[in-house]
Amino acid sequence: MSKHDFILKVEDLSIAFGGLKAVDSLSFEIKEKEIFGLIGPNGAGKTTVFNCITQFYKPDRGRVYFRNKDGQIEDLVGKKPHEIISKGLVRTFQNIELIRELSVIDNVLVGSHIEFKASLFSQLFRLPKAKREEERLRRKAEEVLKYMGLYHIKDQLVAGQPYGILKKIELARTLMLSPRMIILDEPAAGLNDTETLELIEIVREIRDKLNTTILLIEHDMKFVTDLCDRICAISFGKLLAIGTPEEIQANEEVQIAYLGKGDE
Q1: What 3-state DSSP class applies to 211?
Q2: Residue 120: which domain range?
Q3: Does one domain contain both 153 and 199?
Q4: Residues ≥6 apart with Cβ < 8 Å to 9
Q5: pTM of the model
Q6: Which of 176, 207, 242 is the last residue of a domain?
Q7: DSSP assignment of 214-264
Q8: What pLDDT digit, counting tens, does each position of 20-73 carry?
Q9: Partner of 212 at 20 to 30 A CA spacing, among 91, 95, 148, 227?
Q10: Domain stop point among 155, 176, 197
C-alpha cells in the first residue's frame, strides 16, 4: 500500500489499564473508500482501539494518522474528540446515544452542532444569520432522512421507535457532518435478519455514493465477511492477521482465537 493512499493509519498503538495491556503494539492502515472490519473475541480490545483512535482514551504509545477534510495527514493523538469530529472522523456507539424526548429530525440536527457557524449572540437573538444557518441545516437534515428512508417519521419522537430505526437515526446523524470516515461500533447488534441485510446495503451505498470510508466492529461474522473489503483480527489487543474475508476465515490463528476452533 502506498503511503499516499491511506485515510487512517494506526501505528504501534498501545494502552494499559491497571497493568493489563488492552491494546498491544497494534498497527494497521485503511484505504480511502474501504470498508474495514475489526474483529476479535470478547475482551480483545476492539472498542478500546476505537476509543484510542477518537481520543476518548489517550494511548500510552503509538500514533494515529488521519487524512483530514483538507487532504492533509495529521496525528490525532493529543487532540480533543470534538476536534477530531471537525476533521471528518465520526463514530457511533455500542449503546445508542439518542435523545428520546426529541423528534427524529431534531436528533439528526444534534449531529450538525459542530457545523453551526453563527455566533452565540446571533443564536440568542435569532438574528438573520442564525435563522439562515438553521434553515440550511434543517434542509440538509431532511435530505439525509430521505436518503436513509426516514423522512416520513421526521417529526415523530425517538421514544418508542423500533430498535432498527434507532440504529438508522444514529447513522443519519453522523452523515450530517459530511464525514470522510465513519466508525461503527457493532452496527448490526440487535437487528433481525432483514434489518441486517438492509444495513449492509445502506453502508455500501454510503461508501459508494458519499465517498466515505467505513471502519467497523461487529460480532456477527457473516455481516463482517459479507460487507468488508478487508478485516483486521486481534486477540488480547495484539494483531493476529489482516486480509480479505476469505483470508481471515482461512487463517488458523483466527479460527482458534475468534471462532473457537483448534485441536481437540
Answers
A1: coil
A2: 97-176
A3: no
A4: 28, 29, 30, 63, 64, 65, 66
A5: 0.88
A6: 176
A7: EEEE-S-HHHHHHH-SEEEEEETTEEEEEE-HHHHHH-HHHHHHTS--S--
A8: 999 999 999 999 999 999 998 888 899 999 999 999 999 999 999 999 989 999
A9: 95
A10: 176
